[in-house]
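Exercise 7 asks you to align residues with tokens for two separate proteins.
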Amino acid sequence: MAKLWQWFRSPSRMALGSLLIIGGIGGIIFWGGFNTFMEHTNSLEFCTGCHEMDIVYEEYSHTIHYENNSGVRAICSDCHVPKPWTAKLVRKIKASTEIYHKLVGSIDTPEKFEAKRMQLANNVWQSMKQSDSRECRNCHAFETMTLGTQRNDARFWHPMAMDEEFTCIDCHKGIAHQLPDLDGMVQAASAAFQDQLKADSLAQTQLYTVNEKRLFTAPDSSGEVLAHIASGARLRVVEPGNEGWLRVEVTGYEALNDSSKLYMDMSSGVVAAKVMSGLQYGGEEARIDPDTRLSWRTASIAGWVSKEMLSSNLQTLWDYAKVVYESECARCHAVFAPSAFKAPEWGNTIHNMRRFTDLKQNDLDLVTSYLQQHALGLGDI
């Protein structure tokens, strides 16, 4: 025992060399085995080995990433596993949670998978967005694109994506798998929204228009129309009236020399109402807005509106409009933040894009108001 202890305390050079060689060989074998296993988990066969993946594999097998003129196939790991080793290891560790979901049967039937499709898709989209679509760029690069030979929409969007904070997944959702039921999302949001409107007592003194409303001189539709109030406009209740009508006042600003519109404020360019007659002016003198350099004066108009399609909660309107906007526009291209444009620009954009959607005019109006009321100010750059 003493000799063995002595050997450990003062090993010979040959012993040290032997240990280093054995350790080095063992390390190489371990590292090689580990990487071989890692690469095996990247294979198409491994990724599609579970029956839970039958649905997405079937979808993928009919896309250009599976079969195309060039004969170049992108498999699951090309899109879902990073190439940098550290990022790859982190992804593999996160993927280990899938073992748990396999055991408990989270998506082991087509019905369960469809119920979670939106959640699963959002997880992948968010991950790709955070990495600036890193895995897409392994094969696709702006620098090597011949934009002149691309389709019209690609020629428009790709240069914009180079300059703006867009990434591949913003526009190319559903390129390898079926998109979630966006129509179903909108329908579910619409049903919930209608339920909220029905439950609203409208007892508050400040209300908001869900859709464009006509302002009448009398508490019924036989009166003269004073104005068309825009979606999302704020109303102050002046008189409760009868069961189905309210006397309200809309307050805002008039740009001098244009009495046909009442704006919500001086700097956004958002129209609260298109006025035919009955506009009243406040006692303040006209002011010049420092941002827009336009001259404004306060004004208001009062009349009667029906109680239909009014809400006491403005956020309820915007939550629904946001779902509709993002669901509809994401079908074709990147979704711009409302602050990407000014209010008049949003009005023109929605007007030009309306032919590409099946949305009803009321929803288009509400989406337009949502975007305009969260838009860049007229005086902002």
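Second protein for Exercise 7:
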Amino acid sequence: MRLADIAQLVGGRLVGPVDVEIVGVASVLDAGPDEIAYAIAPAWIELLRTGRAGAAFLPFDAHDFGRPHIVVADPKSAALRLAAHFAPQPTFDPGVAPGASVDPSATVDPTATIMPGAFIGTGAHIGAGAVVMPGAVVMHEATIGDGSRLYPGVYVGERCRVGRNCTLWPNAVIGADGFGYAMNDGRHEKIPQLGIVVLGDDVDVGAGSCVDRATVGRTVIGEGTKIDNQVQVGHNCRIGKHCILVSQVGLAGSVNVGDYSILAARAGVADNITIGSGVIVGAGAGVVRDLPDGARVAGIPAVPHLEWKRGIANLKHFKDLQDSVRDLSRRLDALDRTGTRGIKGGAPEGSDEPSPGRKGRS
């Protein structure tokens, strides 16, 4: 695309020649002469100056930038919009392909796509424009909403419900049994998992992630929530709207998470914990108590973020503190050996304590 057309597409103001042609979007460090990058901070602009990018999206007019740029309010959003133009989502021919296994009692919208090797169980429903790719399994009475995509290897368990415009990436599992066992006569006896999973609209579930069905009732993932790869959501959890769960997050059973909360990579949450709305849990944190709305926590166990930062800063002085304590201990031991520990200027008058010149220890 010409830069002039790109500026029109993203609603920006072009500074520089209009006929420069761009073939793609790339990062600040990787962009070549026929690609456009974006900068959101002055330091990024300095990287662009020494890089090879043919043009850039900038949040302000950099007169000394030295190459074409498009001024926009949000450079990242502009870059993403242009990237979507260069790489649109693939389209698929609707219908049930030969080699797909679709139970006669299932309902498949005529505009849906069922690819070879997909399995659709008894009484399942596949909505308009949905795509079920090879190796994906939709068990009996499960529902796939309009426009949703199930990539290869996805499993949607019986009676589970997937909303509209959801994306389930390869090998995501929706509705495996929750991890429930009871000790009986010295053996772990399985507790039947009778509930379902309900995904709201516009939910993404990453590759290899698992959302377990409820023991009874529902495990719920709210509208717009995005789950990264290799995340575990336990049975009876309820995740609010527009949350982010980053790679390797683990939620034990019956965790509640409010709207717009973020759990960073490898965060873990104990069972029956309630996390409020707008909470940020730092990477690798372990949450073992309820968190109020807007909390910012980190560490194991999770504590307020600023408290955790102070603790980390103090660790840098731990060696000096340790050396000081050892030195003080040696000094006290030396005073003990000479019998002068705790004595300054001799014993007080009338005291039974020995003076420095007398035999004995204080």
